[in-house]
Amino acid sequence: MWATGQHTFSRGDEGNEPADEAILLRWNGSRWMKEAAPNMAGCCVPVASDGAEGLVFGEAQRTREGSVIGIGRPPYLPGKTGRVTEADRRQRLLLHEIERVPGAQQVWGVGYIGSGGADEKNFHHGVVVTYGSS
């Protein structure tokens, strides 16, 4: 059993405030043990079991043995021009939910790929992604 979270801090006028810290705990049958957490940018990264006693985070997998494996990004999507431009290469994937397929070592996620910002070159495309093998 796993528990995840994040220590965050109210950003104020104080100067040198500590960085946010990802928290990952694993129940060993008698107590919670702190584990190494993948780098999770920002709050509230979705997390799901990988079906093999590990975890999948939005952009990484932590195996049962403790290795952290980066998950490859999807191909760039064409923006408003219909082809992939240099501006489109700033895209990022943001997942809102991820879940393991029951009985499989496969995880599905839903979210969007977008280039951010507010000018005419920017866009967001809804996506469904899958990790792992069935």
Question: What are the defining features of this structure?
Answer:
134 residues; three-stranded antiparallel β-sheet
Task: Describe the 3D structure.
The model has no long low-confidence stretch (mean pLDDT 78). With 134 residues, this protein is an all-beta fold. It has strands at 2-7, 21-27, 32-34, 47-49, 55-57, 60-62, 68-70, 92-100, 105-114, 124-133. 15% of the residues are buried. It is flat and about 55 Å long.
Order of helices and strands: EEEEEEEEEE
Low-confidence stretches: none
Tell me about the biggest sheet? Answer: 4 strands, antiparallel
Structure summary, number of beta strands: 10
Shape: flat
What's the rounded overall pLDDT mean?
Answer: 78
Class computed from helices, strands and strand pairing = mainly beta
Intertermini distance: 22 Å
Topology:
Layout: E1 2-7, E2 21-27, E3 32-34, E4 47-49, E5 55-57, E6 60-62, E7 68-70, E8 92-100, E9 105-114, E10 124-133
Antiparallel strand pairs: 1-2, 2-3, 4-5, 5-6, 6-7, 8-9, 9-10
Structure at a glance:
It is built from no helices and ten strands.
